[in-house]
UniProtKB/TrEMBL annotation:
Protein name (Swiss-Prot/TrEMBL): BTB domain-containing protein
Functional pathway: Protein modification; protein ubiquitination
First and last residue of the signal peptide: none
Family: Belongs to the Tdpoz family.
Ranges of residues in domain MATH: 1-109
Amino acid sequence: MFMVGGYLWAVYFYPDGKSPEDNAAYVSLFIALASEGTDVRALFELTLLDQSGKERHKVHSHFGRTLESGPYSLKYRGSMWGYKRFFRRTLLEQSDYLKNDCLSVHCSVGVVKSHTEGPKFYSIAVPPSRIGHHFGQLLKTGKGTDVSFEVDGEVFYAHKLVLAARSPVFRAQLFGPMKEQNTKQIKVEDIEAPVFKFLETSPCKLYAGVADAYAFEVNLWHALLHFMYWDSLPDMQELTGLDSKWVTTLMSQHLLAAADRYGLERLRLLCESNLCEDVAINTVATTLALAEQHHCFQLKAVCLKFVAVPENLRAVMQTDGFVYLKESCPSVMTELLEYVARVIEHSVYVCKHGIEPIFDGSDANVSGGRIISGLWKDEEEKCVKLRGDGRGKGKW
């Protein structure tokens, strides 16, 4: 077999003829398409080589076919081109083409592509797609809406087909066999993720300062519909009317949970990407809990790496999000402990010349283990050590 034009080809030789009952007095020779293909257009040449050195080769070629005749078209794998009566057998046995009971055949295959490259004599500027803008205007004008959603007392109007096309959850809710009885007016309840309900009841100044200023569920639904029509996220500060630097992070956290609920994979990944870029002391524990609950593995890894840094860990442990993380995601706490241990293990330097480290302070955890930061005077290298109580277990 050999490869030409992205297709495999094979040569078939029949010494007693391809159909012995019809042409047993002749040898048959064919080239066949040996790989998958449909309407493969090609030109062929078969050359029976003179092995006496006289170069009186027998050539069967179709490379000289006129454009009107065109190449041959092989419809499917196994299609053949060749000759049932390629050479009379008795003459072949007495010819110079046969030497030591062996024939030498040269095959040429030219695959004809439909597309021909050439100089372009035109320049047409194709504008970028504006389908998102067009659908967005459909939402903005409210024309043709056939479903409404009530969220925290505010009503939103939308189009069933758009929602069904964008979300498998809405598709089932609006058109599936288990669709709701009233698909024209739907009351949306309990859209908020559990972590935010917890934080609303806690004295969390960060969340209270933003979330209490405006109904986040309403803003969340605005952003959700904006994405489903525009395929992009709105400006969060413009949407909420707030200029807090935490607005984008908080909205991304809310939208991450909503995206998972409604099967909006692209939105989930957009939020995950935004949160990876905006990891901060005040919000990382909440983000880590969301990453665990909504299976955002890359976001989870970024948060663990951030929290495991000793100078970050102390501050994160003081946040309300960390309290929720401990209560709702015990497995993450175990992973965090292991991550911290690995970070500290890799940050410990070998003391040179037996010089002892001088400890400048420590923080104790509940289990009795101590996170100790130290300073080696040798070459002024900083290090961190973890000293345990020997039990190897404990809670934060």
